[in-house]
Model the fold of this input.
Amino acid sequence: MGLRSARFFLPWALVCVPLAACFEPETPVNTQAAGPAAPVRNFRIEHERCDASVGDVQAVDLDGDGVADVQEVRKDGALVCRSSDLNLDGRPDVFEYFEGAKLRRRETNLVDASFITVAETFEGGRLTLAEYDTRNARRIDTWDHYTAAGKIDARERDTNGDGQVDEWWSFGAEGQVTVRIDVNADGEPDEVRRPEGGR
Ligand SMILES: [Ca+2]
Ligand SMILES: [Ca+2]
Ligand SMILES: [Ca+2]
Ligand SMILES: [Ca+2]
Done:
């Protein structure tokens, strides 16, 4: 994978080129979903800075075109974050953030755009939450929650982008999927579907 080869190349050919200029932090927007027990969710992926504002920057130009492809930021010698341009188009696709040498957060741009479409949260290096902008609307519409064993446990979806969750997915031990759906937009599920073939 690209990141591994990037790490391999890091000790040499270091250059210092700002890589993340197109990923400016966005103002977080919290939207209160309807329903008495509905939690407050982030509907916007909050890009965390990974540049000279958080530490010392080291960048490497993997293909020698004069544009940095991997950038690592360290504070007091410890790796704070890394951004990588996996498809070498001059724009970072993945940002990884570390705490105590363990991955804490990963932001991914899956659509080759100037915004993040997936944000993953890790605890102790283990994935616990993945937030997706599946509609490329610069807005989170899908939340996947994971068990301690790394299996998907629950999924919540805002399928119409109105800022209110309208699907709640659960995953049985045998992989069977149950989807509870809010069809009348009151924040409460009204219908249950069980899609064939699991996910
Ligand atoms: Ca390059
Ligand atoms: Ca790229
Ligand atoms: Ca909705
Ligand atoms: Ca309803």
